[in-house]
């Protein structure tokens, strides 16, 4: 079956590896038409900007998932540095507040249509309502996600990171163009691990997720490329 997402791959593979060669061996088996790549704190800290540039140079759209959270000036400079790497998407924490998000947005203005998409993390998909309470947030995860997503939209950003469990609510409240990037994706039968607010790829797509972040279910599989192809087929059939 032809992959119907070929011009806009929905799956962002989370490259969370301690070993660069292991990551590159996986990347060598992937096609930029079938997936995008996400580089997070582990690989960026180990291998730095050169690693990110090598993926961009290999033709992949790269989501630099460093979740910047700092004072407005620092976050603005960090986001501009990400733009210099040629990444497709970069993120900040929405809980940094509107002034920080506006500063990040303004820092990307000089890049025009070459600017990466700028999104904000709402509530981590590993967190439950009880854990939110423990850090002093008395709303439910869905209420807190919606509050932070509204702030993000009003600050002019392109979308949010949330769980697919909140996707239908956010699409209804914030409209179809506001991008929803959803980690915590678990194909039926796979281990949840530390994730808590999870959905299958097909459920996430049906709920309104624009991009599905998938790490371990693909990267730790015996045949990651086959698992990716299977998930893409499932999405094409569902969509
Ligand atoms: O709320 C969030 C934000 C980011 N992530 C990141 O996504 C991947 C998920 O990997 P899995 O192996 O599929 O669990 C990972 O890099 C996280 O840092 C998230 O999970 N939740």
TrEMBL record:
Described function: Catalyzes the decarboxylation of orotidine 5'-monophosphate (OMP) to uridine 5'-monophosphate (UMP).
One Pfam family cited in the UniProt record for this chain: OMPdecase
Entry GO CC: cytosol
Top class in the EC scheme: lyase
EC number: 4.1.1.23
SUPFAM superfamilies noted in UniProt: Ribulose-phoshate binding barrel
Sites where the protein binds substrate: 16, 38, 65-74, 125, 186, 195, 215-216
GO biological process, one term: 'de novo' pyrimidine nucleobase biosynthetic process
Protein name (record): Orotidine 5'-phosphate decarboxylase
A GO molecular-function descriptor: orotidine-5'-phosphate decarboxylase activity
């Amino acid at each position: 079956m032809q992959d119907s997402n070929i011009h806009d791959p929905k799956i962002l593979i989370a490259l969370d590896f301690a070993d660069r060669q292991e990551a590159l061996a996986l990347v060598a088996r992937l096609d930029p038409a079938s997936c995008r790549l996400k580089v997070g704190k582990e690989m960026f800290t180990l291998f730095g900007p050169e690693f990110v540039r090598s993926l961009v140079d290999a033709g992949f759209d790269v989501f630099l998932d460093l979740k910047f959270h700092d004072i407005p000036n620092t976050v603005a400079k960090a986001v501009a540095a990400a733009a210099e790497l040629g990444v497709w998407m970069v993120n900040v924490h929405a809980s940094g507040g509107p002034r920080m998000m506006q500063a990040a947005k303004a820092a990307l203005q000089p890049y025009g249509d070459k600017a990466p998409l700028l999104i904000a993390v709402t509530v981590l998909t590993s967190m439950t309502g009880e854990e939110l309470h423990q850090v002093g947030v008395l709303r439910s995860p869905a209420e807190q996600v919606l509050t932070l997503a509204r702030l993000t939209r009003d600050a002019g950003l392109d979308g949010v990171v949330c769980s697919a469990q909140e996707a239908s609510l956010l699409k209804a409240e914030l409209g179809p163009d506001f991008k929803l990037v959803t980690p915590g994706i678990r194909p039926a039968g796979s281990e949840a691990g530390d994730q808590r607010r999870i959905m299958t790829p097909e459920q996430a797509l049906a709920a309104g997720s624009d991009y599905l972040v998938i790490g371990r279910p693909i990267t730790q599989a015996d045949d990651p490329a086959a698992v990716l192809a299977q998930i893409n087929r499932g999405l094409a059939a569902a969509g």
